[in-house]
Amino acid sequence: MREIIFDTETTGLDxxxxxxxxxxxxxxxxxxxxxxxxxxxxxxxxxxxxxDALAVHGIxxxxxKDKKPFAELAEEILEFFGDARWIAHNxxxxxxxxxxxxxxxGLPPILPERVIDTLSMARRKHPMGPNSLDAxxxxxxxxxxxxxxxxxLLDSELLAEVYIEMIGGRQAALGLGVADIATPAGPRIVExxxxxxxxxxxxxxxxxxxxxxxxxxxxxxxxxxxGIWAKYDRLN
Length: 236
Description:
By secondary structure, the protein is α/β, with parallel strands linked by helices. It has 9 helices and 7 strands, in the order βββαααβαβαααββαα. It has helices spanning about 50-55, 60-65, 70-80, 90-105, 120-125, 135-140, 150-165, 210-225, 230-235, and strands at about 1-10, 20-30, 30-40, 85-90, 115, 170-185, 185-200.
C-alpha cells in the first residue's frame, strides 16, 4: 500500500484567491519510508505572499518569481502521488488548496476517500491535546529542533515519523498468499504467511522516572532470597 505524507505552503489562507507556493511529500510503502520524495516551489503568478504567511514560512515573492507555475508542475505532482493515499496534518486546508489548483487547470479533484487527516487521527488518539505537529513531535520524542520555519518537505518528514508512531510504530504486518506444496499424495495448495517487522525510527522515551526505578530496586532488594526475581536470576 502506497501512501504520500505531504504538506503545502501557500500565499495566504483563502484558497479562492491564494495559491500553493511549495509542496513536499514523502513516499511510504506498507507504512515504511521508501526514500522517494517530491519537493517543488511554485510561482503563484500575480498573487503576492501575505505578510502573515511570510512570517510562517519565509518564502518571498522574489524567490518565487523564476519558479514554474502550478499548471506546468501538475503532471509531475500527479505522477508522484499516483494511486497513493494523500496524508496531511489538517488535510482539509491542504486539500482545499490542491483541489482549487487542479480546478483552475481543468483537472478533477482528489476524492475525500483517498485522503487521511493526521490531525483528526491525533484528536481521536489524544483527545486532551495539544495536537499540533510540534506538540506531537514532543509527545513521541521526535527531534524537531531544526524546524525554525515551516517548510513543506521538512514538515512532511516530521509528519511521516509522527504518523508511523500514531499507527503503532514497530509493528508486524501479515501478508497472506498461496503456494503449491509437493506432497506424497500430490500437490497441495496451502496459505503462506509473511511477517514484515517495521522498526521505529527511534526508541520511545522511558516512562519510568529515576525515582520510580530506585524504589523498585529497593523493593526487590528487600525481598531477598525469597523473591521470585532472585530465583529467576539463579536460573539464568
